């Protein structure tokens, strides 16, 4: 369904370790939402010079509890700091749900949900949806330190297994999620990986998954997005479509979820010479210049 622009009332603002979790009453967004989609929030107030919205993955929605939407963020710049200072009953201008959701398997399979920091937030609504399809879910969560791992308690309570990794060893094992990934894949007998993490981590996860011939559904983090609607083209990345031709796809509209094997991770931040529109690019014989696509989907309904 098409996204909507609403004025949502802040219900709660709470600290979750190093992060802030904000719940907004937005029933029109809650009823349209699918796991993996995101929202874009205006910041600074009506007189602010901060024109760009801030994009956030959705952690949880409750259509049957007044239509609430919860998102999680770290106050790291003036816009998100302004949001962190909001209080209950403040009103926010919110657009959503935006982007393409996670596809879910038609048949029960074993799913590994991998996340780092606040990027883990969208994995929990996904886990509930996968559980409704009869899929088993295992979690692999990471962060720089214990206060920067999001959702560890929920993962341990709801997943078949939950492995936690921190760079400083303050929670779980010391290291990174990519260090633990081969072990977890073998122990969980994973059929598909759902990953939501910074771009370098997604790159490494997809490279490791290729060794095991496992598909990856990769969610590009909202920090890479500016407008959230595709207008600024600030979040483009090279994606090979089903016809084998590379096109520059916008993470906020063609994504944020992509088939991991289709993204040319080594070329992110550049325009590959063989991408459509690149200097010197020539169309392949008989190939049509179709719009960018992220590849086939299992079932995103």
Describe this structure in words.
- The chain is of the alpha/beta class and 301 residues long.
- It folds into three domains: 4-98, Translation factors (Elongation Factor Tu (Ef-tu), domain 3), CATH 2.40.30.10; 110-222, 3-Layer(aba) Sandwich (Rossmann fold), CATH 3.40.50.80; 225-295, no CATH class.
- The chain is built from six helices and 15 strands.
- It has a seven-stranded mixed sheet. A six-stranded antiparallel β-barrel has the order 1-2-5-4-3-6.
- Strand 4 (54-62) and strand 5 form a beta hairpin.
- Residues 288-297 have low confidence and may be disordered.
Tell me about the largest β-sheet: 7 strands, mixed
Let me know the average pLDDT: 91
SS content category: alpha/beta
Supply Rg: 19 Å
Our estimate of the beta-strand percent is 25-35%
CA-based shape: globular
Biggest sheet, spatial arrangement of strands: 10-9-8-7-11-12-15
Number of domains: 3
Enumerate the spans where pLDDT stays under 50 for 5 or more consecutive residues.
288-297
According to DSSP, the number of beta strands is 15
Number of distinct helices: 6
């Amino acid at each position: 369904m098409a996204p909507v622009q609403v004025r949502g009332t802040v219900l709660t603002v709470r600290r979750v370790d190093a992060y802030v979790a904000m719940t907004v009453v937005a029933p029109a967004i809650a009823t349209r939402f699918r796991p993996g989609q995101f929202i874009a929030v205006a910041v600074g107030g009506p007189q602010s010079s901060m024109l760009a919205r801030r994009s956030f993955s959705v952690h949880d929605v409750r259509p049957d509890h007044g239509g609430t939407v919860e998102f999680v963020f770290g106050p790291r710049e003036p816009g998100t700091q302004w949001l962190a200072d909001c209080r209950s009953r403040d009103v926010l201008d919110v657009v959503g749900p935006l982007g393409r959701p996670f596809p879910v398997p038609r048949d029960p399979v074993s799913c590994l949900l991998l996340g780092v920091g606040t990027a883990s937030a969208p994995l929990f609504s996904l886990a509930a949806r996968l559980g409704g399809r009869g899929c088993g879910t295992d979690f692999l969560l990471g962060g720089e330190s214990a206060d920067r791992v999001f959702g560890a308690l929920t993962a341990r309570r709801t997943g078949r297994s939950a492995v936690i990794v921190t760079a400083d060893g303050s929670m779980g094992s010391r290291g990174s999620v990519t260090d633990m990934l081969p072990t977890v894949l073998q122990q969980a007998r994973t059929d598909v990986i759902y990953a939501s993490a910074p771009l370098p981590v997604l790159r490494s996860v997809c490279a490791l998954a290729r060794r095991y011939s496992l598909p990856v559904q990769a969610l590009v983090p909202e920090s890479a997005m500016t407008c959230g609607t595709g207008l600024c083209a600030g979040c483009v990345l090279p994606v090979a479509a089903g016809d084998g031709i590379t096109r520059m796809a916008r993470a906020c509209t063609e994504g944020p979820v992509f088939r991991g094997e289709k993204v040319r991770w080594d070329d992110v931040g550049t325009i590959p010479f063989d991408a459509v529109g690149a200097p010197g690019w020539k169309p392949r014989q008989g190939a049509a210049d179709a719009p960018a696509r992220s590849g086939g989907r299992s079932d995103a309904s």
